[in-house]
Structure formats: C-alpha cells, structure tokens
What we know:
The complex is a heterodimer of chains A (281) and B (400). Chain A is mainly α and 281 residues long. Chain A has a single domain (9-49, 87-279), classed as MetI-like (MetI-like fold), CATH 1.10.3720.10. Chain A has 13 helices and no strands. Chain A starts with 8 loop residues before the first helix and ends with a helix. By secondary structure, chain B is of the alpha/beta class. Classes of the chains: A mainly alpha (281), B alpha/beta (400). The A-B interface holds A 182, 184-185, 187-188, 190-195, 198, 202-203, 206-207, 209 and B 71, 74, 76, 99-105, 107-109, 111, 113, 115-119, 128-129, 131-133, 180, 186.
Amino acid sequence: MEIIPKLPVAEWIDKATEWTTDTFEFLFDFIKEDFGDFIEFFAEDLLMAIPIWLFIAVIAVLAFFASGKRFGLVAFSVVGLWFISNQELWEELMNTFTLVIFASLISVIIGVPFGIWMAKSKTVQAILTPILDFMQTMPAFVYLIPAVAFFSIGMVPGVFASVIFATPPTVRFTNLGIRQVSKDLIEASDSFGTTGMQKLFKVQLPMAKTTIMAGINQTVMLALSMVVIASMIGAKGLGQTVITGLQRADVGTGFVAGLGIVILAIIIDRFTQNLNTQKGQ
Amino acid sequence: MPVIKVKNLSKIFGKNAKQATKLLDEGLTKEEILKKTGNTVGVNRASFEVEEGEIFVIMGLSGSGKSTLVRLINRLIEPTEGSVMIDGEDLAKMNKQDLRGVRREKLSMVFQKFALFPHRTILQNAEFGLEVQGIDKEERSKRARESLDMVGLGEYIHQFPSQLSGGMQQRVGLARALANDPEVLLMDEAFSALDPLIRKEMQDELLELQDNMKKTILFITHDLDEALRIGDRIALMKDGKIVQIGTPEEILVNPANDYVEKFVEDVDRSKVLEAQHIMKRPETVDIEKHGPRAALERMRKEGLSSIYVVDRKRKLYGYVTADDVSAAAKQDKKNLHDILHTDVPKAEMHTSMHEIFNMIHDSPVPIAVVEGDKLKGIIVRGAVIAALAGSEVSINGDHS
C-alpha cells in the first residue's frame, strides 16, 4: 500500500472547480445578479405584496378544488398558514416558498427531458443511472461548497444546491413511467405510423403521467428538505430561523420555525398528490 | 392482382442473424440452427400472396411464428431477409418515412389484447390513426364516428375503454383500424382473448362487415375452427414455416402432410360439432296450462308447424302438430293429451353432429335435445346446414 502515494484527488477537484469558476464567470455572474434579483423580486416584492388574508384565501380555494371538493386540506391550510403568520414568520415562509418553487421548477424543467432521453436510449440510461445515484447519496452539505464557489452566498446558491439534490427523482420516475408503458400500446402506436414525437406526446407521456407526477412530488419534498441546509449559505427563510435557533441554543424559536417547515411540507405534498390522483384517471 | 406479395420472408432472432439465414438455405431445421448458432428462427422463408378483398388466414399453434409473420408485414419486427410487396412497393426496403406513410394509409392492425389507449375515450381511440395523419378535428371525428357506428358502438363514444366489456373493446380496436380506411387489415389473434360465444359473434360480424367493405384481411389465429369459419384461404404454419396454403376444403380434404392431417383429425374429433352447440332455445307450450287454442296461437305467432309440449319443470312430453291442434280447437277440446305425439326424435347434449345429420334427414319435426327427461333445446334443419357450411369437417367425415 505504501507504494502508491496519496492521490491528490482533493487538489484535482479544487483545480476543476477553480477552472470552472474562472471560465464560466460571466455566466455565473449573470445568474447570480439577474436571477438573484428576480428571486428576490418574486419573494419580497411579489409574494409579500399580497395581503396575508388574501394569500390564505386563495390557497384555501385552490385546496378545495385540488382535493376534490373536500374540506380537510382547506382547514389544515388555513389553520397552518394562520399559525405561521401569527408567529410572525410570514416573510420567512414566503422566502422558503420561493426557494422551493424555483428549485422544483428548475428540477422538473431539467429532469423531465433527461428522463425522456433516458427512456429512449439504453446507453443514456447506463450513463445516467450511476450519476443519479451519486447525486442522491452524496451528503447534501457537499453541494454547498461549489455552490458558494460559483455563486457566493444567498438565495441563488441555495437554489443551485437544491436543484442538484432534488432533480434525480423526476429523472428516474420519468424514465420509469415511460418504460412501463406496455409493449402492446407502443406496437399499436407504431402500427398507425406515429413519429417518435407523436408517440411520446400522444401515448408515452400521457400514460406515464401518474408516475412522473409521483417523481415531481418527491422532487418538491427533497427541495423542501434542503431549506435548512441551504440557509447555512445564506438562503433566507424558515431554515435561517432554525439555524439562528441552533446557534443561540434557542429551542423555542428553532422549533416553531421547524413546525412552519412541516406545515408547508404537508400542504405542498397534499397539493401535488391530489393533483396527481385526479388527473391520473 | 394480389395486394400483398410476400416472398422468402425470414426472421431470425439473435446476433449474426444473416449467417444463420445461410443455414436455412442449406435446409437445416429450427432446432439444428438453435443448437449450432444460438439463433431462434421466427419465420422461415414464408411466401404467399393475398388477393384483393380476400380473408387470408394464417393459422398455427403458439410458437409457430404466425404473430412474428404478421409483424414482419408492417415491419413492427424488422425482417432478416425477403420482401413484402404491397401495391408493388417493397416494405422491407423502405426508409422510415415511407414506411410510416404506408402504415398510416394502407395497413391497419387489430391486436389480440386490444391495445386500446386507456387515457383516451372510445372516440379518441378510434380517431387515433387519423390524428396521427394530421387530419383536422372535425373530419376525423366524423370518420371515427362512422367507423364506430359500423361496429355498433355509436352510443359509447365518450366512455373509456376500461368501462367496456372485452367484446366491445375489440370492436373499438376494429373501429380504430377501419377509421383509416386502410387497404389491408392485419388482425393478430383479434378474437382469441374473447370468450367463445362473443368470439363467434365477432366472427359473424366481421364476415358481415366484410361483405360490405371488401377489405383485404390477413387474419392470424391458432383456432382451426375460426380459420375454417372465416378464411377464404388458409396458410398453415409450423416451426416458422408455411406447410400448406389452400381453401378450407383443400386443407381438410387433401392435407399436404402428416402434420396438417393430424391437425384436421384433431378438429374432427373434438371441435364444436355437438348437439349442444347448434341447438337453439325451443318454443314450448305447458301441458298443465295451455290448451289447443293457446298452442295454436303460439304456433301462429312464431310461424311453426309443430311445437314441443313440456310441463312446468320442462319435462318433455312430446309434440303437437298444427293440423291436430287446429282440429282439436274446433272440437273445443280442453287439453293436449289426446293429440300428443310421443315419437320424439331425441339427441343428448353431446350427440355428435354426424348422428344428428342422419336423424334430421327424415324427421318431420325439429330434434329435441334432452338432458335426462328435460328439454334443453331443439335443432332445426337450418342450424345443421349452417353449421356444416361454416365448417366442412363433417362433410369430410361423411365422405370418408
């Protein structure tokens, strides 16, 4: 064992990161500045401009229809959101919400096409599967480091780290959903002379929709689970309050903010799940 | 002019398929090739022609390569060798785009397990082929509706496939294929997943439809009875090879080899031709309840010259004829006992068609099919003739 000296893997990765940072500086700067501004605008100007009562009312109405005109989710949403505002955590909630929305949206926009690509080609599947495994098993904290290198601190690196962490389920489930479409239906589609695109949009995606939605639900949940971790690099929101609580050994504050995250998680989860069961018929 | 012309069409599964085709040319069997190269022979140099407006049945047991063969024709499976000419164009050599064109306009397929799209309504399913062609919404909806009307599903258009029975689902499959107005209909064991009664109904319906539309139909089945019923010509397959092509009569009377003969024999012994299969529900009068007038009335309504007499438990007493009943009614007799004929021609449920044929020849009344002393059904002369026409098996039996 002594023959081989310690490989400078860490140095290599440092170099690679440095090179990437330098080379794509213009791009990273652009994202950091403009995208960062946009996120800030969305959270602080757009969402915060909505009166709290109106926001809760809109969510309640949406919940009513999303859950098939039942009142369970409506009641939970109203009480939960009221509680958060009562604890004076509304601005934090809006920031967390923004982070989750953007991270999920970007994950889905990246994830679904990759999932489709993976389903259409065995080679792509063979290459992507270990990468996805890697992305999911690597401790999420590690993503914070290059995120900071590329985007310094704030919301943008938070979204970046969340996207890396949250994308795999969407890719996997899209791939799975398309591959699960029965061979009979693919044959039927082919026998009528469909092009690849027609087959994808008329048969494969509609049939895979339920599975893909389950993947998106997972993605959203993972993005939400990154909230606390992302606030270590300055992403605003409920996570930040939790971290503050931790640093000051302030159990009460940390716990209340944690509760806020749980409430948000349950509302988002039920929303996406209900949308799925309704449309998946 | 043949519409489909298949020549030396082969499919070999596995690597180095081209090499294995050489072994086929050297005359090696399927097993020998499998042993030598590890390749499976799906279809072994099949050649046949299908005429316009003909129902050409490809028939064989499972593993005989018939499903592979039909998929070679629209190239759902790539042929290893040979040609498939449709309207003078070789599908086997076509580029993808032309192939799509042919699939859209000339070939439509009906599948064994229906293969309907579960997320689309019946109408949307029937529209699928037209939608793929890019035909506008109004036109395709109109044509799909016509096609659904043709198979008797005009009222179900907004249902989903899962809400329909198997027989109805396959009608949708048929409507979807017909909506394109293709020249050729490929039917891959289209009725095999249906239960026997529905299957027969669908066969009849297909024949009826065919009378009007005169499509060229390539029908795959493992059921010889079905092949005999609907086929204008039949190709028998074994181990990927076509062993005989001919009309149903030719196949039955002059089997090309032992394999075909055994096949046909098998049918002769075991297939449908028993009394219970051709009997129909009898019209009866109740001896305890009905007098001559009631019997006369019933016979007049149904246009019968005789009617069977039973009791409430359907125990068979005999039959009465129209003449006797009419006379008895004039004499104001109250019951049927005096004019009852008891010399009933009887058959059991499992009596063979062969015996029934001899019995019905000189019987003045329909044959009663009984189980114990209960009347289960009757067989009229027309039913025997229809059954014979549908399957020449018994004629063959008579001659031999």
